[in-house]
Amino acid sequence: MLVLGVGGLVGEAWMTGFLAGMEERTGFDLRGADAYVGTSAGSIVAATLVAGVSPRRPDPLEALRTDETPRRRLDAAFRRARRASFEASYPLANLAINVTAPAVAVARAAFLASLPPGSRSMEELRHYVSELGCEFDGRLRIVAVDQATGRRVVFGAPGAPSASVVDAVPASCAVPSIYAPVSIGGRRYVDGGVWSPSNLDAADIGAGDRVICLLPTGVMSRSRRTVVRGLATALHSRTAVEVAGARRRGATVHVVTPDARAARVMGPNPLDPTRRPLALREGFRQAIGSHERSEHA
Fold this sequence. Notes:
This protein is α/β, with parallel strands linked by helices. The chain has helices at 8-26, 41-50, 69-80, 102-114, 123-132, 165-173, 226-248, 260-266, 276-287; strands at residues 2-4, 36-39, 140-146, 152-155, 182-184, 187-191, 210-214, 252-257, 294-296. α7 (226-248) links the parallel β7 (210-214) and β8.
């Protein structure tokens, strides 16, 4: 089972590179995983795998493709985010710490309502997912947050609101105050990272399951800014609670974050698309055998 967390444009590239390195090292085809949970950037990676597309390799190992249209669409979406600062969403991390407290959803909804409206469009991302042809197949779960209620919604899970993957992925990626919320069935949804950086507890986990959780936000723990490191600690604590719950159910869980070298290359702004090729390379390097690989929780 793969749980793919938040991380912006740069985190998407690092996760993709890491998964490509895993395939290279183990020979396992990750398109055949039993289940996927994707949040924000992780939803893009998860949908790509479910669509039957292998994780892309960094040059010169990247194989030639006969159709690059979906990738061009995604690159266009990323270029539009170049001037956005992910730090604008750091205060949202505080809302993801005690998500089980009854009053937190109300506070989250109030906070989301107080933010300036995002204006950036998700159309290029929507086109990318559409061209993938991905559908909910029983394995895929994509996490977003209902803007009005502050509650988590796990698209693709039993009992969840009806949605297409084409709508669910942009909803999961709609960082408040940067991107416009995504409307599905008359409700407006924003980034699933507002609830949790990993949403590992959204997976249907049982005894004997093996879970690999990729969490690019681990790069925040290496920031020079004290406030960012503090938020990283809080987010780690939230993930640790989810990991503990999965282990109590008998699952084996490995949480992987960028190592020191990858963190330096990825830089402080996860929405900077110029860092993506380097993040892809570093994720690949980390997976195929770096001794600096970070596994925690």
